[in-house]
Amino acid sequence: MSTAPREPRKDGAATRTRILEAAGELFAALGHAEASNKAVAAKADVDLASINYHFGSRNGLYLAVLDEARKRFLDLSDLQRIIQGSQPAAEKLRVLVELVVHKATSARDNWHLRVLAAEILAPSPHGQAHLQAAAPLRLSLLKGLFSEVSGIPVDDPALTRCILCVTAPW
Question: Is residue 119 part of a domain?
């Protein structure tokens, strides 16, 4: 007897979002090690199985929180839009800095900034590898922009040091 595949629940995306928000807030407030799945489920008003259903595991939930935090802070599409714009390089850099400052100072609930800061200051085992996996594309985009602004060739190691000096707080 074959059964037709079940249609996804209409509230599934909303449940996933509630879990992600609750986890982000708890990871920001308590840290990765102290925020339990049970606390996340209670805060999101879902059962514990929902976390595994939507994220696979506690680690999957944490990586999804890191992805969301990075997206809220500086989405790759924002970076690409700025860098691929037609303005002069110095103007692109100004726009990029303004965007970062705006996102850092205007967020009503800035759990995403606290989660990223915690991951940078006290790296979790899987978090750093996950964040670094997306770094090459971002670094490549930034190298092009900083090379235009500074005149330092893209393949010169000094350019990477320059980028780190300017963007390390990001």
Answer: yes
So what's the pLDDT on residue 48?
94
Kindly state whether residue 64 falls inside one of the protein's structural domains. yes
Calculated CA dihedral for residues 157, 94, 101, 112, nearest 10 degrees: -50
Q: How confident is the model at residue 9 (pLDDT cuts 50, 70, 90)?
A: low
What ranges in 107-170 are assigned the alpha helix state H? 111-121, 127-133, 135-150, 157-167
Residue percentage of the chain with pLDDT more than 90: 60
In this predicted structure, the answer to whether residue 10 has a pLDDT above a threshold of 70 is no
Counting the structural domains of the chain, the total is 1
Alpha carbons 102 and 106: distance in angstroms, whole number: 6
Q: Which domain holds residue 86?
A: 12-167
Domain CATH code at residue 56: 1.10.357.10
Whether residue 96 is contained in a domain is answered as yes
The string of DSSP codes covering 65-125 is HHHHHHHHHH-HHHHHHHHTSSS-HHHHHHHHHHHHHHHHHH-SS-HHHHHHHHHHHS--T
Residue 125 lies in a domain: yes
Residue 100 pLDDT greater than 90, yes or no: no
Helix (H) or strand (E) holding 63, with range, is helix 58-74
Highest mean pLDDT among 7-16, 44-53, 107-116: 44-53
